[in-house]
């Protein structure tokens, strides 16, 4: 019991000493306050809340989320078709991919994927 208590006290003392030394050696400047402030979508949280938001950035982010979710829905189809080769799964996966590609083609035609304009 005495050995365990000694080890716990040693660990506590060592961790306290290391934290104290790191706080003494660290740089504490006003610039560090900027680093510890929240960062949301490239906006300065201390600035005006009425800044215009890039609609192009928003559309690209939404398209990314949609395709990301659809890819996570497609991954189990690969496992299912390897385990059991059922025509229903193949037809479902192909239909899902066709809808996905049609949506991508539509977004491309509308210019939503063109970042430069």
UniProtKB/TrEMBL annotation:
<keyword id="KW-1278">Translocase</keyword>
<dbReference type="GO" id="GO:0031966">
    <property type="term" value="C:mitochondrial membrane"/>
</dbReference>
<keyword id="KW-0679">Respiratory chain</keyword>
<keyword id="KW-0813">Transport</keyword>
<keyword id="KW-0249">Electron transport</keyword>
<comment type="similarity">
    <text>Belongs to the complex I subunit 3 family.</text>
</comment>
<keyword id="KW-0830">Ubiquinone</keyword>
<dbReference type="InterPro" id="IPR000440">
    <property type="entry name" value="NADH_UbQ/plastoQ_OxRdtase_su3"/>
</dbReference>
<keyword id="KW-0496">Mitochondrion</keyword>
<protein>
    <recommendedName>
        <fullName>NADH-ubiquinone oxidoreductase chain 3</fullName>
        <ecNumber>7.1.1.2</ecNumber>
    </recommendedName>
</protein>
<dbReference type="GO" id="GO:0030964">
    <property type="term" value="C:NADH dehydrogenase complex"/>
</dbReference>
<dbReference type="Pfam" id="PF00507">
    <property type="entry name" value="Oxidored_q4"/>
</dbReference>
<dbReference type="GO" id="GO:0008137">
    <property type="term" value="F:NADH dehydrogenase (ubiquinone) activity"/>
</dbReference>
<comment type="function">
    <text>Core subunit of the mitochondrial membrane respiratory chain NADH dehydrogenase (Complex I) which catalyzes electron transfer from NADH through the respiratory chain, using ubiquinone as an electron acceptor. Essential for the catalytic activity of complex I.</text>
</comment>
<feature type="transmembrane region" description="Helical">
    <location>
        <begin position="86"/>
        <end position="105"/>
    </location>
</feature>
<feature type="transmembrane region" description="Helical">
    <location>
        <begin position="57"/>
        <end position="79"/>
    </location>
</feature>
<keyword id="KW-0520">NAD</keyword>
<dbReference type="InterPro" id="IPR038430">
    <property type="entry name" value="NDAH_ubi_oxred_su3_sf"/>
</dbReference>
<keyword id="KW-0472">Membrane</keyword>
<keyword id="KW-1133">Transmembrane helix</keyword>
<keyword id="KW-0812">Transmembrane</keyword>
């Amino acid at each position: 019991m005495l050995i365990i208590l000694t080890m716990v006290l040693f660990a506590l003392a060592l961790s306290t000493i290391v934290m104290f030394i790191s706080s003494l050696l660290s740089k504490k400047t006003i610039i560090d306050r900027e680093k510890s402030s929240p960062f949301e979508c490239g906006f300065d949280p201390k600035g005006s809340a009425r800044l215009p938001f890039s609609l192009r950035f928003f559309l690209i982010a939404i398209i990314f989320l949609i395709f990301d979710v659809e890819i996570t829905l497609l991954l189990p189809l690969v496992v299912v078709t390897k385990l059991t080769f059922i025509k229903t799964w193949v037809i479902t996966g192909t239909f899902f991919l066709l809808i996905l590609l049609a949506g991508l083609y539509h977004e491309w035609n509308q210019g939503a994927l063109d970042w430069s304009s």
